[in-house]
Amino acid sequence: MAGMVLFGRRWAIASDDLFFPGLFELFLRVLWWLGILALYLRYRGKLDCARGVLLGNYMVVLLVLLAVIVCTMLAIVCVSMRGTICNPGPRKSMSTLLYIRLALFLPEIVWASLGAVWVAESTQCDKIVVSAIIATVVVSWVIIGFTVVIIMVVFDPLGGKAARYSSAAPTLAFNPEDSQFVGGLKTAATSVWEKRMKLLCCCVERDDQAHMAFSSTAELFSTYFSDTDLVPSDLVAGLTLLHQQQDSLRRNQAPTEVVSHSPGPAQKDDLDAELENCRHYMPIAAAAYGWPLYIYRNPFTGLCRIGGDCCRSRTTEYDVVGGDQLHCHFGSVLRMTGLQHRDFIHISFHDKVYELPFLVVLDHKKESVVVAVRGTMSLQDILTDLSAESENLDLGCEVQDCMAHKGISQAAKYLYRRLVSDGILSQAFSVAPEYGLVIIGHSLGAGAAALLAFMLRGAYPHVRCYAFSPPRGLLSKSLYESSKDFTVSLVVGKDVVPRLSVTNMEDLKKKILRLIAHCNKPKYKILLRGCWYGLFGGNPDDLPTELDGGDHRDLTLPLLGEQSLLTHKSPGYRPSDSPLGSPTKYPPLYPPGRIIHLEEEGPSGRCSCYTAQYTAKWAHESEFSEILIGGKMLTDHMPDVLIRALDRVSNRDACISCPTPAGSA
């Protein structure tokens, strides 16, 4: 649904978004009206003090004013319940009701101000009456202040231009000025997003790399949202519908319809060995996060165990490992890895845009030099993640299509300079020349580790990489195929990050648009049912759509209703077109290496406290070509969940490398 147009500008709120806030205010106003009425009926004969008549009149007028406000809010709630997301016609009176409601704030402000003055001059009146009127004045100003905050939140900086374009959008006649106007709107949107990012990341150091990341992120966001006219609640409703639809498809899908990508016998044979390697290296990858993750995993004892390290002055052991900005990190790193300080060659917690913290340790058990790269844990890291356009890499290999995620490749180049130019790897191999080289990382660090392994292959041809929960949008197709020779990725459950790429996000947007276009229920019912389904489950086939028989395959087809949610209305528009479809800037990218997928067995785990068990299998990258919506899409990404899942797989008696049945692939 397009945002409402009020006062000649578009706002980031739709006419069906007012049900829940309106219902909440209506509840408060009714209670308030009943309280004032009871107060007046009980104390109207006791207002014989100075200014007592004014206080009585104040309560009478307040009762009338509250009654008008209650009637207006009741009308707003009732109108907000009408229609659907794509059918705002039954709610066309909402703008008039909002004008009336906003106009009522003026007498409310005036009356609250007068009430404050009269109460201040009525010190001899009954204290209960005075206290009650003071409370009403305070509540009035709280509601007014809360309304001002809401107006600031739903204010759209591009509202003036968007309102002009929305009024012209319904016509399908091509206007040469439209493309110029849309281009100007996109430029303005990029500027607005850049200002938002700079405000959000106000503490980030403003160097050339940061400015590059701000521009890249702003362009991505402005491009992604430029062809839709959705408000945030529409996206939430679409995600709840998609969650239920995905569960319904998986439930009704016959085993014969599932395409199985079974690995060859050689891959099945080494699954156990690679799982053991993952279980060994994952604690070291987690240690790169430092003390925050350690305290998160040990909330009751963690601070006591490493508290002394935070206050301890810098000693020679810190210089031995060559670290910088260690602070409380060193003690937590030692405890999470179980290694000794002499095993560490270098520890760096230096953190900037495109510059990630990392560890270099000697792993005597596996006889390897391990480089562990930290994942996302700061605003700088988020800017690195969001620099999502592709750039060419000069890897000096025979691979033709050498493209990768720009932000992560910049981080990998920084790591390469530190490890090679600063002589850190030379120092490590001077201590243990017979050891191999292993690069590991989690999340953002996994992506940087995979690219770093590519860069180091020339000097270290036997390098190995273990990428834990890497982002999907990382490598071009050629690099993905090449990475299988030396990289293993590990993914748990519905983890969203290994499914996260610009192309997958574009696909997610299209699915949301189509589900919203099919929906035959009002938004408040979708959200209420979505909350119930997310918490307690239910029948996923009971989708609030116009489709019959539970057949949702038609949702992949273009819809006329979808076009009402898109701003591009030229005759040449096709619903499959995408502003992100540029093959040069945002081409399809893939996760690194061979992929081990740990899938949870048993029930879904809604509101249950059972001990999860996992099965492991080799997976094809196509199994992660869709973002899965669910309660564990974020929690499955946490490092402690990966460690527990690996422990649960490793401790099972069943053969974890046995072939996967075709129906469970």
From TrEMBL:
Which chain regions cross the lipid bilayer?
A: 20-41, 53-77, 97-120, 132-155
EC?
A: 3.1.1.116
Cellular compartments per GO CC: cytoplasm; nucleoplasm; plasma membrane
Indicate how the chain sits in the lipid bilayer.
Multi-pass membrane protein
Listed A to Z, the keywords are: Calcium, Cell membrane, Hydrolase, Lipid degradation, Lipid metabolism, Membrane, Metal-binding, Phosphoprotein, Transmembrane, Transmembrane helix
Q: Where in the cell is it found?
A: Cell membrane
Q: What class of enzyme is it?
A: hydrolase
Which positions fall inside the Fungal lipase-type domain? 370-503
The protein's matches in Gene3D superfamilies, at most eight in alphabetical order, are given as: alpha/beta hydrolase (3.40.50.1820)
GO process terms (BP): arachidonate metabolic process; cannabinoid biosynthetic process; diacylglycerol catabolic process; monoacylglycerol biosynthetic process; neuroblast proliferation; positive regulation of triglyceride catabolic process; prostaglandin biosynthetic process; regulation of inflammatory response
Pfam families, from UniProt? Lipase_3
Its UniProt entry gives the catalysed reaction(s) as: a 1,2-diacyl-sn-glycerol + H2O = a 2-acylglycerol + a fatty acid + H(+); 1,2,3-(4Z,7Z,10Z,13Z,16Z,19Z-docosahexaenoyl)-glycerol + H2O = 1,2-di-(4Z,7Z,10Z,13Z,16Z,19Z-docosahexaenoyl)-glycerol + (4Z,7Z,10Z,13Z,16Z,19Z)-docosahexaenoate + H(+); a triacylglycerol + H2O = a diacylglycerol + a fatty acid + H(+); 1,2,3-tri-(5Z,8Z,11Z,14Z-eicosatetraenoyl)-glycerol + H2O = 1,2-di-(5Z,8Z,11Z,14Z-eicosatetraenoyl)-glycerol + (5Z,8Z,11Z,14Z)-eicosatetraenoate + H(+)
Signal sequence segment: none
What molecular function terms (GO) are annotated for this protein? metal ion binding; monoacylglycerol lipase activity; triacylglycerol lipase activity
Q: Which cofactor does it need?
A: Ca(2+)
Q: Which family does it belong to?
A: Belongs to the AB hydrolase superfamily. Lipase family.
Function summary: Lipase that catalyzes the hydrolysis of arachidonic acid (AA)-esterified diacylglycerols (DAGs) to produce the principal endocannabinoid, 2-arachidonoylglycerol (2-AG) which can be further cleaved by downstream enzymes to release arachidonic acid (AA) for cyclooxygenase (COX)-mediated eicosanoid production. Preferentially hydrolyzes DAGs at the sn-1 position in a calcium-dependent manner and has negligible activity against other lipids including monoacylglycerols and phospholipids.
Q: What is this protein called?
A: Diacylglycerol lipase-beta
- The encoding gene: DAGLB
